[in-house]
Amino acid sequence: MADASSIFAGIATSAQNGAPLYLQLKKAIADAVRRGLLVPGDALPSERDIATRAEVSRVTVRKAVQELVRDGMLVQRHGSGTFVAPRMDRVEQSLSRLTSFTEDMARRGMKVRSAWLERGIYPPSPEEMMVLGLSSKELVARISRLRIANGTPLAIERASLSASTLPDPDAVGSSLYATLEKTGNRPVRAVQRISAANLGDADSKLLEVAPGSASLNIERISYLLSGKVIEFTRSVYRGDAYDFVAELRLSSPDESGESIL
Fold first, then answer.
1. Residue 152 falls within a domain, yes or no?
2. Where is the HTH gntR-type domain (predicted)?
């Protein structure tokens, strides 16, 4: 790490530019990371040391650091301190192809693993009954996983299926779709709804980001060729790791009902 004094010095004396001190300190740290003066894995000095060198209060330091943690530039490890976050290549995910997480990451040459959060047979919730078309007497299979690529947690997937479709959730390995394909139940189309959100404490801990960090929440309903709903999945993706891409085409007169001329 470069001389910390040169990074943090002069913050208080530049207050005449009108920007709040914590924003000036945040910018100084962010600039140091972008210029390579602080590199991934470097530990920041303690809150007290930064406050002394920058001639600001510890409250100012804490606010600047918390914002950089929320932005994904810094990470805090309990009992260890604050570090420059590892650089992460963003994953570009097409919205026009119905593929599994395992297939997406394998295509990019990334090593994938999952940490199971839930796997079993349960009475369905009202939402599951409505989406999957289940009666109150039927059961639902739930599988929830933390999806990890190249050692970095990227997404939390929570899938629900009829227990008649997936009677043994323990049979699912790395890919749910591969398991469904064996029984002829792999979906052929899906409708997805994407919304922006801020992570709560539980999900942010799983994804190893600060509470309140940006996320992309995707609700997917998948169908068989017959039109039957086969899967209901709610996923939470790290906002700092994913870009979702959709191809748009000008509709033909047959599709829109109007002439394009």
1. yes
2. 19-87
Domain range for 110 is 91-245
What would the two tokens of residue 238 be? 């790290």
Q: Is the dihedral of CA 112, 118, 122, 124 positive or negative?
A: negative
Cβ-in-10-Å burial (0-12, 13-18, 19+) of 79 comes to: exposed
Task: Provide the 3-class DSSP secondary structure of residue 191.
Answer: strand
Q: pTM for this structure?
A: 0.63
Residue 9: CA count within 13 A, CB half-sphere: 5
Residue for token digits 């039109």? Answer: 227
The residue-averaged pLDDT of 153-170 equals: 94
Contacts of 217 (CB under 8 A, 6+ apart): 194, 195, 196, 197, 234, 235, 236, 237
pLDDT bracket for residue 260 (50, 70, 90): very low
Q: Is residue 261 part of a domain?
A: no
Structural domain total, the chain = 2
Residue 225 CB burial class (10 angstroms; 0-12, 13-18, ≥19): exposed
Distance between CA atoms of residues 20 and 136, nearest Å: 57
Same-domain pairing of 58 and 138: no
Whether 132 and 239 map to the same domain: the answer is yes
pLDDT band, residue 88 (cuts 50/70/90): low
Task: Specify the higher pLDDT residue, 258 or 70.
Answer: 70
Token reading at 236: 């939470």
Percent of the chain with pLDDT over 90: 37
Rg (the chain; Cα; Å) = 24
